[in-house]
Specification:
single chain, 444 residues, alpha+beta, Dna Ligase, domain 1, Nucleotidyltransferase, domain 5, five-stranded mixed sheet, 13 helices, 18 strands, globular
C-alpha cells in the first residue's frame, strides 16, 4: 500500500507540474489505432480547486494544439503484446503530434482498454473530534475503508470517493467545513492486471516519456460520451473498440462500475475475412463501407466486389451480396452485446433511475447497431459522440475518438482520488496491497 500510495501521488504531482508548465500530451493506446493529442493549458484559472475535495479537482481551460494517429502495432485486446512494435508506433504518433503542435512534450497521460478491470465498493466511517470536517478527516475516513482481497498480480488503477455522509445527511460531494459528529464515505476501487500496466509503463519509459497519469479507457470514454444529466442520474457507456469493449456506469457524476468484454471490432473483421476468404485489410474496408446488422430486401441486390491476387480469375473477381455480409457480422455483434448485458445485469444497472445506455467507439458506427443494442439490452440506447473540446480536429470528433477526448477531460478536470490526500502512515490498511506496484519503486 505504501509503494502504491506514494507512486500514485508522484504521478499526480508530475501532472500538476506539467499543467503548470502549460503543455501535456494524452495517449490513447488502442488495438486498432494509437492517438496522441497535445494540450495547452491557458488562463488564470489553471489548477483552480473549487469543485470536489482533492487538490487537483477543479476546472482548467485547455485547447488541443496538436493531434496525430497511427495504426496500432504490438497491441492486442487493449494490452501490449509486442513491446518493440508498440514502442515504434508510440514514438511515431508522439513525434507527429509534437510536430503538429510545434512544441516538445515530455509528460504523457495514457489510457488502456484491456487488463481485465474489476470494480469494488468500499465503505469507511470515523467519529469526528472537532465536529468540523477538515481535509485530515477526509484522509482518515478514506484510510478507514476496509480493503478487499483483490488477488495476486492485481493493481489499483482508480480509487475515487463517490459519496460522503455526515451524520444523517448523505450525497455530499465536499463535506469540508461542515459540522457533524460522524463522517462516512463510499469509495469505488478499480483494479487491473499488474503485468498489463507494467508492460505499458515500461513501453512508455523506453519512448523517453514521463508518465503523469494512467486511466481506464472505459472510464474516460464515459467522461466524453455521457452528458452531464446522464452522469448525474445513472447511465452506462459501452465503448465498442477494436480489441475490447469497455463498460462503465456513472452515478452522481462519478464512475461506480467498470469492466471489459474481451471482444471487439477486430473479431468482426476476422469473421468477415474467414467467411469470405479475403485478406484482413480488405475485410476491414468492406466492413467500414458496406457493413451492417439489419438486412432489408434491397440488400440482396447490392453486390460487393471482392478482389484477390491468387491467379485464379474466377476466384479473384467474385461478388457477394450485402445480405451475406450482414449474416456474417450480426452474430458476432450480438455476442458482444449479450456479454455487455451480462455485465450490466451483474452490476445491478436495472436499479438505477435513468437506465440510459450510450454506445460509442468505432464499433458503434456500424449501421443499425443502436437498434440491435436496444433489442438485446432492453433499455434506452443512443449513439454517443465525444464532447467538443477547443482545437479538436474535425477528423478526431467521431465516436472512435471517445477515449482520446475523454482523456483530455480527465487531464484537465481530474476527480479527487485516494492518493490526493495525506493519509497518516499509521493508518495504511494492514491487510491490503502491501505488494502493490513494486515496479514503480524499482524504476522511477
Amino acid at each position: 500500500m505504501t509503494d502504491l500510495y506514494h507512486s500514485q501521488r508522484a504521478m499526480r504531482q508530475m501532472r500538476k507540474a506539467a499543467m503548470q508548465r502549460g503543455v501535456v500530451a494524452v495517449l490513447d493506446v488502442g488495438s486498432s489505432k494509437i492517438a496522441c493529442m497535445v494540450l495547452r493549458f491557458d488562463g488564470p484559472d489553471r489548477n483552480r480547486s473549487e469543485d470536489g475535495v482533492g487538490p487537483l479537482a477543479g476546472q482548467s481551460q485547455f485547447r488541443v494544439i496538436g493531434a496525430a494517429t497511427t495504426r496500432s502495432r504490438g497491441i492486442r485486446f487493449g494490452e501490449v503484446e509486442g513491446l518493440q512494435e508498440a514502442e515504434r508506433a508510440i514514438r511515431t504518433v508522439v513525434q507527429s503530434a509534437q510536430k503538429a503542435a510545434g512544441q516538445r512534450v515530455d509528460h504523457v497521460i495514457a489510457c488502456m482498454s484491456g487488463a481485465s478491470p474489476r470494480s469494488y465498493g468500499l465503505a469507511g466511517d470515523i467519529p469526528l473530534t472537532d465536529n468540523v470536517v477538515t481535509e485530515q478527516d477526509i484522509a482518515r475516513v478514506l484510510a478507514a475503508c476496509e480493503m478487499p482481497d483483490i488477488g495476486e498480480g492485481r493493481e489499483v488503477l482508480h480509487a475515487q470517493p463517490v459519496n460522503f455522509a455526515l451524520d444523517n445527511r448523505s450525497g455530499l460531494s465536499d463535506p469540508r467545513g461542515q459540522i457533524g459528529h460522524h463522517l462516512s464515505v463510499d469509495m469505488h476501487l478499480l483494479t487491473v492486471n499488474r503485468s498489463a500496466v507494467e508492460c505499458l509503463l515500461h513501453c512508455l519509459k523506453r519512448c523517453d516519456l514521463e508518465v503523469a497519469g494512467i486511466a481506464s479507457s472505459a472510464y474516460v470514454a464515459g467522461l466524453a460520451a455521457l452528458v452531464e444529466d446522464e452522469q448525474e442520474l445513472g447511465s452506462a457507456c459501452i465503448d465498442m473498440g477494436a480489441g475490447a469493449t469497455g463498460i462503465s456506469i456513472f452515478m452522481r457524476k462519478h464512475m461506480i462500475y467498470a469492466d471489459t468484454v474481451r471482444m471487439g471490432g477486430d473479431l468482426v473483421t476476422r469473421d468477415i475475412a474467414m467467411g469470405l476468404q479475403i485478406p484482413l485489410p480488405q475485410a476491414e474496408r468492406i466492413k467500414t463501407f458496406h457493413g451492417g446488422v439489419h438486412a432489408t430486401g434491397m440488400d440482396d441486390r447490392e453486390m460487393i466486389p471482392l478482389t484477390a491476387d491468387t491467379g485464379d480469375w474466377e476466384k479473384d473477381s467474385r461478388k457477394v451480396s450485402r445480405t451475406e455480409l450482414i449474416g456474417i457480422m450480426r452474430p458476432r455483434v450480438e455476442e458482444i452485446l449479450e456479454d455487455a448485458r451480462q455485465h450490466l445485469d451483474a452490476a445491478g444497472f436495472e436499479h438505477l433511475p435513468s437506465q440510459q445506455i450510450v454506445l460509442t467507439g468505432g464499433g458503434s458506427l456500424i449501421p443499425g447497431v443502436d437498434m440491435l443494442a436496444a433489442r438485446i439490452l432492453g433499455q434506452r440506447v443512443r449513439l454517443g459522440r465525444p464532447l467538443r473540446v477547443q482545437g479538436l480536429p474535425q477528423g478526431a470528433a467521431g465516436a472512435g475518438f471517445a477515449s482520446a477526448v475523454g482523456l483530455c477531460l480527465f487531464a484537465a478536470h481530474p476527480q479527487d482520488e485516494w492518493w490526493d490526500f495525506e493519509i497518516p502512515s499509521d493508518r495504511y490498511p494492514a491487510r491490503s496491497l502491501r505488494r502493490a506496484l513494486r515496479w514503480f519503486r524499482d524504476n522511477w
